[in-house]
Amino acid sequence: MTTATQEKKAAPPTGSSRRGAGRRRLYQWLFVAPALVYMLAFFGYPLVRNVLMSFQEFTPRTYFTGESPFNGLENWRGVFENDLFGDALWQTILFTIGSLVGQFTIGLGLAVFFSRRFHLSAFVRAILLLPWLVPMVVSAVVWRRIMDEDHGVLNSFLETVGLSSDGVAWLSSPSVALLSAILVNIWIGIPFNMVILYGGLQEIPRELYEAASLDGAGPWRTFRSVTLPMLRPVVTVVLVLGFMSTIKILDLILALTGGGPADSTQTLGTLTYQLSFLQLDFGQGAVVGNVLILISAVFAVLYLRVNRADHQPGK
Q1: The pLDDT of residue 220
Q2: pLDDT at 55 over 70
Q3: Given phi > 0 = left and psi -120 to 50 = alpha, else beta, which region is 100?
Q4: Is the confidence at residue 126, as pLDDT, over 60?
Q5: pLDDT tens for residues 164-221?
Q6: Is 72 helix (H, G, I), strand (E, B) or coil?
Q7: Which of 8, 243, 280, 312 falls 20 to 30 Å from 23 in CA-CA distance?
Q8: Are 98 and 234 within one domain?
Q9: What confidence score (pLDDT) does residue 284 get?
């Protein structure tokens, strides 16, 4: 004889439990609210306002009169037909890629170097953080003095060792100025890359290196087969954050070269500044700003997709 058992139905929630759940949701929203208000006020509103400005005739006159008539795609057409926009876009790409490659390569090398503990390693790492801690404008002013064609320390050193007799026009030559700006930005960004990658290296289990050593793997093969694959999530974060901070750099170039000579260091960031605050064409300046936002958004989406793929089960 079998006895049939009936499943007990869950008791419906009482009034006190519903009130408790509602109170918890209220607390959750109260904790989130300050950050949400901050994001909407300082990121959401300026973003929407910038998009609207790109479709309006927004000049000093219309700013004071309060009339900013809709002009369709005139601002966008004016920007894309401007030869300086194409040059600025190309120089932005060169500046960003050159900076990221230099910062990441040197930062990774230093991170691997400091992962092997030695006397005073922590002190030396702290000293190397200084370029990252100093305000960017201050760094640009210092490097402008160092790279001065007539009295700079860099040219004096090159003349002393016999590598140059006339000096190099680091900041006043259109063919060299962009390279100089890239080198300065590499110097500034190395500490960030080094710190993040060093932290990632410390999270790699030592057992993997021991297993690779038992398999007869040399230093290069161990680095290629163990270190780099385990560092992939950290590398992705470093490159994406580095890209999003580098592509919009303004203060460094303004303090170092001012976008010159002959617009050879003009980037999208400096072009936005020039159109908006020098030529007072806020509509076209908003267009260039929207292009920067769009480029950053594309890479942010790519980062999220890569990050989601890395965290899928089985990977």
Answers
A1: 87
A2: yes
A3: alpha
A4: yes
A5: 778 888 999 999 999 999 999 999 999 999 999 999 999 888 888 888 888 888 888 8
A6: coil
A7: 8
A8: yes
A9: 93
Helix (H, G, I), strand (E, B) or coil at 55: coil
Sign (positive/negative) of CA torsion 295, 276, 53, 77?
Answer: negative
* CATH number of residue 259's parent domain: 1.10.3720.10
Q: Which of 40-44, 60-64, 148-152 has the lowest mean pLDDT?
A: 60-64
For the chain, the first-to-last Cα distance in angstroms comes to: 51
Alpha helices by DSSP H, 203-227: 206-214, 219-222
108 close to 189: Cβ distance less than 8 angstroms: no
**Domain contains 264:** yes
Torsion sign (Cα): 237, 240, 246, 248: negative
Same domain, yes or no: 262 and 162: yes
Phi (first) and psi of residue 56, to 5 degrees: -125, 155
Alpha helices in the chain (DSSP H): 15-39, 45-53, 60-65, 74-80, 83-114, 121-128, 130-133, 136-146, 153-160, 177-202, 206-214, 219-222, 228-246, 251-256, 268-273, 282-310
Residue 226: inside a domain: yes
In the DSSP assignment, the letter for residue 10 is: P
- Single pTM value for the model: 0.85
- Looking at the fold, whether 194 and 212 belong to one and the same domain comes out as yes
Q: How many residues does the chain have?
A: 315
List the structure tokens of 120: 């005073």
189 and 299 housed in the same domain: no
Give a yes or no: residue 11 inside a domain: no
The domain of 246 spans: 88-274
Q: At which residue do the structure tokens 């993040």 appear?
A: 196
My answer on whether 147 and 287 are in the same domain is no
Task: For residue 20, tell me if it sits in a domain.
Answer: no
Comparing CA positions, the residue from 108, 300, 299 lying closest to residue 193 is 108
pLDDT digits (tens, 9 = 90+) for 6-45: 444 555 555 566 676 777 888 888 888 999 999 999 889 9
Report how many domains make up the chain: 2
Domain match, 209 and 170 both: yes
